[in-house]
Amino acid sequence: MKTIGVIANFEKERAVEAIRHVSSLAGGMGFTVYAEERAAAICPSERVCPVKEFGSHGVEAVLVLGGDGTMLDAAHRVAGQNLPLMGLNIGSLGYLTSVEEHQFAVALQQVRENRFDVSLRAALAVEVTRRQGGRAALPDALNDVVVSRGASGHAVEIDLSLDDQAVTRVLCDGIIVSTPTGSTAYSLSAGGPILLPDTPATVISMICPHTLTYRPLVIRDTVRVSLHAATCQVPMIVSSDGRDDEPLQRGDTVLIARSPRSVPLIELHGYNPCDVLRRKLGWGSR
User: What pTM does this model have?
Assistant: First the structure.
């Protein structure tokens, strides 16, 4: 691999230093590096290129400098270009951006020599159907789709159906539908289970349900999920990976299914998701 793109989160304190470090390493290994104007201005050896044009300029992989939020944003920005992403952590948690700074040189060398694995992560396709007619599609979600109560201080009622079969009506603050990748994010905070990245399943977690009996559901990723806004005092909100919010009126329905498009993530040799769980989330520690 000879040509890479760089996406960086300049809100991170060490962003400029990290970009210079990565650019220096990449230049020494013979990479051609493309980046947006702000990043390229820091490192004159980098060529200026909008992210949406990475693929047309021959970029073969994208290095993402930041945290998990930066990684999700990058996945949305390069969607449709089929470019593998590698997360370099300069954030705090860094579950998706699992390559730490002391590993940057090793990581780039493996990319240069094509000594890495690509994990095809499941994504969720989202469509809103309006009670009054019309449809609205949201970008595919790598982590999760969330239907929440929005600006209201009151709980809402959401009808849950699977493959057009009614399951239940939930009085709650919202519902999270997550991929295996997203099972360690918002869904985990709402009491959902952890799924390994290649598990062919989807998790449905309720946010603050007004009952003691609701528990998260794990379903096959071939099942289509329907969330119907049954009652709400103000518009609910549906979001894809915490962004691209779309208002939901009473009677609107959100349809969620596995997307035909996966998100390719670069994993270094020896990557172990359970090890990341232990290091990043303290899984199993006492």
Answer: 0.93
* Residue 87 to residue 66: CA distance in whole angstroms: 7
Q: Which residues contact 78 (CB under 8 A, 6 or more apart)?
A: 7, 51, 54, 55, 62, 85
Judge whether 15 lies within some domain.
Answer: yes
Of the residues 68, 73, 140, 241, only one is catalytic, namely: 68
Farthest CA pair distance, the chain: 60
**Mean pLDDT over each residue of the chain, to the nearest integer:** 92
Q: Do 270 and 226 share a structural domain?
A: no
Amino acid (one-letter) located at 273: P
What is the identity of the amino acid at 22? V
17 is a domain residue: yes
Could you tell me which residue, 191 or 285, shows the higher pLDDT?
191
pLDDT of 91 reads 73
**CATH code, domain with 45:** 3.40.50.10330
Confidence of residue 98 (pLDDT cuts 50, 70, 90): confident
Residue 286 included in any domain: no
140 an active-site residue?
Answer: no
